[in-house]
Amino acid sequence: MLAAALLVGAYLTAASAPAIASAGTDAAPASTAIFNDRVRVVTETYDLGDEAFSDPTSGTVSEIRAVVRRPSTVRRRLPVVIVSHGSWYGCTDPEAQKWPCENGTPYPSYRGYDYFAKALAQRGFVVVSLSADAINMTSFDYGDRARLINEHLRLWQQLSQGEGVLAKSLPALSSHVDMQRVGTVGHSRGGKGVMWQASDKHRDEVPDGVRIGAVLALAPVKFDDPEGDNSDTLVTDTPVAVVTTGCDGAVGEQGQRYLDDAKGHSSAPAYSVSLHDGNHNFFNTQWSPPAPLGEDDSTCPTRELAPTTQQDAFTTYATAFFEKHLNDNPKGECLLTGRQPLTGVKSTTRVVEPVTN
Question: What span, in angstroms and rounded, lies between the C-alpha atoms of 272 and 259?
Fold first, then answer.
């Protein structure tokens, strides 16, 4: 059963070398109650091409493309959070049928979490939001999503040693990322993808030298194939958080079942929050109006959350989760457990305590 409803708000206070498509520095907002307004954030990208990765298991051919947000000043090794979007149009022309896009250009779903990436970067994280358009065009294999994450992690592990194809493009981060403190976020089908990638069954596929320290499934897909066999997504030794919404017209709140799977089996805590009036698409700004192909999928349009309100609630909750489990910072644990009600959004929290010997 879900715990009592809470009000959620903001708790945070004061191939050869890949191409860089853009680089810039964002000034923090002049006034905010959520983010550290003293930290400037740099945005960089890397792009190895539309067909840079051939999956060794399935043969699916994918792009290697990502946007990176980081603090402008890097003096030590920083934790890394990988973000993987879910299923959407793979090309800007909705009639496109092939990959690479025969019409239009790759759809920028991976840019839909810039608000979240900036917030974490202001807290000292490196956030890598990867593109998975080829998978959306050609594959329904959740293993493909997991293995694409692992390929990016392989490149980042090389970068952490001052080596590899990313070193020339991201010089400030060369030898300055801590691959023992890695978190993942997956939205929608990407949510099942990150659970698959971190699962007990598939964790041996994670690149050597990389440790997944926290996994967050955002409005995730949840179904077992075959029915009743949850081994592909069962995570029992890594902290997990799940965010769902009460008016999700795409997948409902099926993601809460990941906590059911963990109960009685996991040696790490599992948390969830349900945002009562949120929907599926508003977590990604490229899937939401007024984006060209954006859609409002809410099942309760008369009381739905404003997009920025929903995004702020997710950002606050997710930041507390990654601060606790990647930075050993317990200040936001009260939000994860529901001990501290926060203003702005009606929600319900749930915690599955780890099993003890």
Answer: 8
